[in-house]
Amino acid sequence: MAKYFQEEIETMPVEQLKALQEEKFLKQVKFVYENNEYYRNLMDEKGIKPEDIKSMDDIQKLPFLTKSDLREAYPYGLLSKPLKDCVRIQSTSGTTGRRVVAFYTQHDLDIWEECCARAIVAVGGSNKDVVQVAYGYGLFTGGAGLHGGSHKVGSLTLPMSSGNTERQIQFMRDLNATILCCTPSYAAYIGEKLHDMGLTPDDINLKAGIFGAEPWTEEMRQNIEKSLGIKAYDIYGLTEISGPGVSFECEAQTGMHINEDHFYAEVIDPDTGEVLPEGSEGELVFTSLDKEAFPLLRYRTRDLVVLKREKCPCGRTHIKMCKPKGRSDDMMIIRGVNVFPSQIETVLLKCGYTPNYQILVDRVGNEDTFDINVELSEEQFKKYREESDLDAARKSLTSAMVTMLGIRPKMHLLAPKSIVRSEGKAVRIIDKRKLHD
Ligand code: DLL
Predict the structure, then answer these.
(1) pTM above the 0.85 mark?
(2) Is the shortest distance between the CB of 324 and ligand 1 below 6 Å?
(3) pLDDT tens-place string over residues 70-80
(4) Rounded to an integer, what distance in angstroms lies between the CA atom of residue 359 and that of residue 375?
(5) CA 211 to centroid of ligand 1, rounded, Å
(6) Residue 39 CB–ligand 1 contact under 6 Å
(7) What's the gap in Å between 381 CA and the centre of ligand 1?
(8) 360-378 burial string, b = 16+ CB within 10 Å, else e?
(9) What gap in Å lies between CA 256 and CA 248, rounded to an integer?
(10) Alpha carbon 26 to chain centroid distance?
(11) What atom in ligand 1 is closest to the CA of residue 93?
């Protein structure tokens, strides 16, 4: 079975890969300057002409682009091709402010789908597989991206979209799905539902899952692998840069290979914008290298990662990024302490709790309140019959949280099934302080 979708590119010697990136980058800058007024103005303001960009290192002369720039340019401001050459629109979910709309030419779609195809082949997918796509279809890129990738691989594609979980399981069984694609929180829910239906992993044929679109921890990976009897792989991407498949995990499951022939990655200090050396944690910045409709130069993702180029047992040479710790704007500052939802997830799962939780932050007077609701499993619920047992469990979980976070949350242990399940990206944080500001 093929190990790679595009072997030559995926295993290209690093020096050659870097030369390819540089060649494409110089062309991309020129293309953008010539075809996009917004960029031309931005570069003119800085006094930079495409001729000043002579090597990959010169990227540092270019200004960063942020989400608010994209919102300002909505909808057509960053389009670099005439609309008649575009064939697709996708969009971010736009929970805060205006949506970002991304445009694709056929060439852009091909690149994007090839990146997703690489991810599917990396988890052992081939034309013998049945790929169940349970990411949402529509403006969200999850469904469309993995769907297109599955077609490119030649797998039998099951376009379920998200939701209707019992039907997902029925189709999964009846049609022998072997690879499941959805968000990790939805995968956890499917695993739970399988159990509730009296079924076990032996009743399904899945071997792997490609899960992304939201942060998830190693503990969550183990939980999903066990409940579905599969190997769970991470996939990362963002609408602005194309969608899923900007990077993906291979069999090593130790970080995601960035598709460097299409996307150039930098890590910067989010406060100063300084480019950090490989191995440092910082904000991920992407430059597209060969996009047509919606090329972006130095786009700040707000995702916090570490990049590492190391010899990978899978044979791929492309640099790896660690699991994003979360967006810099997902980080909560509670009573002056930085808190990430992923830290809370780690503690919960390590202590044997379910991945069904919600974080509630508010401000009363001048003080932050910090509550975590976590659901008990049926077994725990039965076990903790006495209030004193429940109290002891709550105390021990609280102290594990204090050790991890450095501050004390108020823990609430809830009855099974009391937190709404997610079929897409889970909403983990309710920060009411934002309403007061
Ligand atoms: O979430 C694209 C996608 C779809 C990726 C399906 C993977 C699978 P957006 O809706 O534009 O696009 O959201 C992008 O989601 O900047 C990250 O903050 C977060 N994100 C995406 N993948 C991961 C991941 C899609 N594997 C934003 N781990 C990104 C952590 C992720 N966060």
Answers:
(1) yes
(2) yes
(3) 988 999 999 99
(4) 12
(5) 10
(6) no
(7) 34
(8) bbbbeeeebbbebbbbbee
(9) 4
(10) 28
(11) 10
The residue contributing the CA closest to ligand 1 atom 29 is 238
| pLDDT score for 93 | 74
**Dist. CA 4–CA 259, nearest whole Å:** 13
Six token digits for residue 250: 């291979």
Best of 67, 214, 217 to mutate for ligand 1, by most ligand atoms within 8 A of CB? 214
If you take atom 9 of ligand 1, which residue's CA is the nearest one? 238
CA distance 421 to 426: 8
* Structure-derived torsion over alpha carbons of residues 374, 380, 384, 389, reported in degrees to the nearest 10: -70
Q: Is 135 in the pocket of ligand 1 (CB under 6 A)?
A: yes
Distances (CA, A) of 279 to 268, 282, 339, 385: 11, 9, 22, 48
pLDDT for res 435: 72
342 lines ligand 1 (CB under 6 A): no
- Model confidence pLDDT, tens digit, residues 261-290: 999 999 999 999 999 999 999 999 999 999
Distance (Å) from CA 52 to ligand 1 centroid: 34
Distance from residue 324's CA to the centre of ligand 1 (Å) = 9
> How confident is the chain (437 residues) per 10-residue block, as mean pLDDT?
92 98 98 96 95 98 94 93 98 74 98 98 98 97 98 98 97 98 97 97 98 96 98 98 98 98 98 97 97 98 96 97 83 93 95 96 95 96 90 97 97 96 93 78
